[in-house]
Amino acid sequence: MKLALRTLHEFRSRLGRYKLQERRLARAALADDPAIDAALREHMAEHAVPEATVRRRVQSYLDEIIPYFNVLSYYKLGYNIAKIFVNLLYKVSVDHQDEPALNRIPRRDVVVYLMNHRSNADYVVVAYVLARGVHVSYAVGEWARAWPLEYVFKSFGAYFIRRRYREPLYHTVLERYVQHITKNGVTQGIFPEGGLTRDGRLRPPKLGLLDYICRTLLDPEFSRDIWFVPVAINYDRVLEDRSLIRELIDERDRPGRIAQFGTVVSYLLSNTARLLTGRLKRYGRVAVNFGTPQSLRDWLRTAPEGVLAWPRERRLPELERLAREMLDRIGAIIPVTPVPLAAATLLSFGQTVVSRAAVLERMDQLRDRLQDVNGKMVRGGARIAEVWDRAWRMLRMRRLVVADGDALVILPRGRPLLEYYANSIAHLVPIRGPRMPFHKAHEIDANLPRLRA
Question: What fold, for 335-423?
Answer without folding.
Answer: Arc Repressor Mutant, subunit A (1.10.10)
